[in-house]
Amino acid sequence: MDRDSIPPFEQERFLARRRRQKRHGWIFMVLGGFIFLDSYAPFPIPLVGPISLLIGFVLFCYGYYQYNGYRSLPVYEALQVAHSHNGQVTRTELFVALQMTPEQTDLLIQELIKNGFFEPIEDETNADSELRYRLIA
């Protein structure tokens, strides 16, 4: 991946997409589950038979797909954050920019190191500073 081809990180757009994925995931899973479970009862909605099973299953699967998109690690966005910080980033910068839990941030960093996107930088000048990670071109 060419470093110049990475667009700048847009935090508000990223966070809005994550909120939308979470909301859609829950709404469609609940709606699909409700239709699926209500498919043999004439109340409260008159959807019965195989059509209602299909509609409920499709809506539930779409909600599950959206929720999994919300739960997945934002690898590409972490690369965008690192690129916007001149190729070097700390755990705290990723934590704040992506608004993840500390555990998710650690998993993301481990995944990026394992896949060869990041490497840790040793800083001997200041022992109190946080470990920095460099984006590998």
SSE diagram, text form:
Layout: H1 11-37, H2 50-71, H3 75-84, E1 88-90, H4 91-98, H5 102-114, E2 118-121, E3 132-135
Antiparallel strand pairs: 1-3, 2-3
Helix pairs in contact: 1-2, 3-4
Could you explain the architecture of this structure?
The chain is mainly alpha-helical. The chain folds into two domains: 3-71; 75-135, Orthogonal Bundle (Arc Repressor Mutant, subunit A), CATH 1.10.10. The protein has five helices and three strands; from the N terminus they run H-H-H-E-H-H-E-E. It has a three-stranded antiparallel beta sheet with strand order 1-3-2. The chain starts with 10 loop residues before the first helix and ends with a strand.
N-to-C SSE string, H for helix and E for strand: HHHEHHEE
- Spatial strand arrangement across the major sheet: 1-3-2
- Please, how many domains? 2
Output mean pLDDT.
84
The major pleated sheet works out as: 3 strands, antiparallel
Contiguous low-pLDDT stretches (5 residues minimum) are none
**Number of β-strand runs:** 3
Q: Helix/strand/pairing class, anyone?
A: mainly alpha
Please give the count of helices.
5
Q: Report the β-strand fraction as a percent range.
A: 5-15%
Helix content: 55-70%
Terminal residue distance: 8 Å
Which radius of gyration do the C-alpha atoms yield?
21 Å
Shape designation: elongated
